[in-house]
Automatic annotation (TrEMBL):
Pfam families: Nitroreductase. It comes from the Bacteria. This is Nitroreductase. Belongs to the nitroreductase family. GO terms for molecular function: oxidoreductase activity.
Amino acid sequence: MSNETIQNIKERRSVRKYIDKKIPEETLKEIIDCARLAPTGNNRQAWSFLVITDDEIKNKIASYARYGRFIEEAGACIAVFVNQDKATTPMQDAAAATENIMIAAKSHDLGTCWVNSYQKEHSPKIKELVNCPQEMELMTLMSVGYYDENDVSMPAKKFLSEVMVWDKF
């Protein structure tokens, strides 16, 4: 593949096991810079990205999120929040930003795993833990970290011919 972006998309996978290696602050800033450039409905950009590197906070988040226990091992956790009063398409906005985070992280050889957090059981506890403003809604949690490439497998994906149709169904 000659296009690095396409290659990163095709090689990206969910990573739930991380090695103990600190992520440089500049790398995390670049990842969030890519997240903020995602499209939003009516260009509202009604989001905030909370980058959590503190081990104590990550451990608490991991204990609250039933399907996010691996967050405690990651170098960082990125929480995507959206102001639902200002956003016209909050779920779509958060999903687009979350996808940008995954692709940007992959370009830095970092693994990620998305934890849906929209109105989940763990969300109120995490919002309280991080002093989230009342008007913001937790949409996604994203573990980010270095991983052992030999310890990650690619789950089977459907073939293109199984999901693509032309002109009409």
